[in-house]
Amino acid sequence: MDFEALWTFQTEDLKAEAIATEIKRSPIRLKLEKARDFIMDRQKQYKQIEDSVTAIADRKDFLFKALESTISEIEAQKERMASIDPEDEDAIAALREDVARARNEIRSFEKELTQMNADSGNFDKQLRSVRVEAARAKQNFDQLKADYETESKVKKEALERQRARVKSLESTVDPELMAEYLSIRKHTIPPVVRLQYGQCSGCNTSLPSATLSKIRSGALVECETCGRMIIQ
Ligand SMILES: [Zn+2]
Fold first, then answer.
1. How far is CA 50 from CA 39, 62, 79, 127, 201, in A?
2. Candidates 2.30.29.30, 1.10.287.1490, 3.40.50.11740, 1.25.40.10; correct CATH number of 3-172?
3. Which of 96, 110, 134, 209 is at 20 to 30 A from 184, Cα to Cα?
4. 185 CA to middle of ligand 1, Å?
5. Is the pTM of this model over 0.70?
6. Per residue in 159-209, pLDDT tens?
7. How far apart are the CA of 222 and the centre of ligand 1, in A?
């Protein structure tokens, strides 16, 4: 059998495979994927901060309403004060307690509002910085994308040329060998290896002398260990 034609075919086939792998593993492509993940991460972060800002706004609305109602409670307490009998000590004590409670409430609302104002300021700052980072990342992404497109255009053209060369060699290979080659190629690359020092050069297994003489006679032999076709 003409193993040399198959060997030449494989050489060209592996070149095409190498170009395809190079396209897939292009450093620019990997950077591009990282840049995309970074942007998505910042978008998620932005959304989370926005949610916190909304939650603060809701809580503020609630506190303002509570504050208003406590203030009107105090107004009502003042009116009650005017109408209480000055001799009725119990009523006066109860009213004082009500006033003190209302004032405490107001203080605690004010304290929370001050804290929330500080939080809002921090969130605004964070939103600005995330926006700036995302914009920079987008610029970086666009540049990488343009570079990748230029690079992959050149490589894809090279791949197409190489695949055409492989295709043109197909007819030079014995169909039986070709079928065998394609079947091995599905799980092992390269599918064909040379015999080297009595070993399969695919997996370095020493071969029994019966197998060696079969290979030397030009028969189709597959390595029992790695499944590759072994040729002289
Ligand atoms: Zn082997």
1. 16, 19, 44, 8, 61
2. 1.10.287.1490
3. 209
4. 14
5. no
6. 999 999 999 999 999 999 999 999 999 999 999 999 999 999 999 999 999
7. 8
